[in-house]
Amino acid sequence: MNKITSKEIAQHLLTIEAVELRPDQPFTWSSGIKSPIYCDNRKIIGQPAVRKQIVEAFCQYLSSELSDIDVIAGTSTAGIPHAAFISQKLDTPMSYVRGSKKSHGKQNQIEGAQVAGKRVVVIEDLISTGGSSLEVVDALQVAGAEVVEVVAIFTYGMDRARAAFSAQQVPLHTLCDLDTLLTVAEEAENITAEQKQLIEQFRDLY
Fold it and tell me: What's an example of a GO molecular-function annotation for this chain (predicted)?
């Protein structure tokens, strides 16, 4: 299969409305922020053709750019299905990381494959500020894993996320980013140049 490009990923995300652009009718995030963009990559798992392309893009990157990966770790909850698809295709052990330890049983935070002493790549669906992804990295490192990289489907490209990953010295790669998606949306005449600028200005606030 030919290499799947960031622009192709952007087209898929827009087509299935996993990412929606609404500069004239902003969405309200859980934080209360009024945003001209909303990302729900959970929609991907309900679209087999798109899901196949996303998984193939992940696998192409991991196979060509990262070597000797012992464990694929999904973030809870949205990263879990993608990690499962990838680990199945690459025949690599998988784990997933809860937001916090269970309050019962063995009180595990990390489930599945053992990560101590292993080279682990974290699979995420979305990078906004980066905080939740880096909490997963922390949990894996405390458990003795070497976190090689965080790989995600999409990022808003916020400065605070770049700064957070840099401060923690954790490499980050995304299959698609906001700049690429906005270019594709404008070329398809889904948004105007002025609307594109409004979305970029919103992103640059953070």
Answer: magnesium ion binding
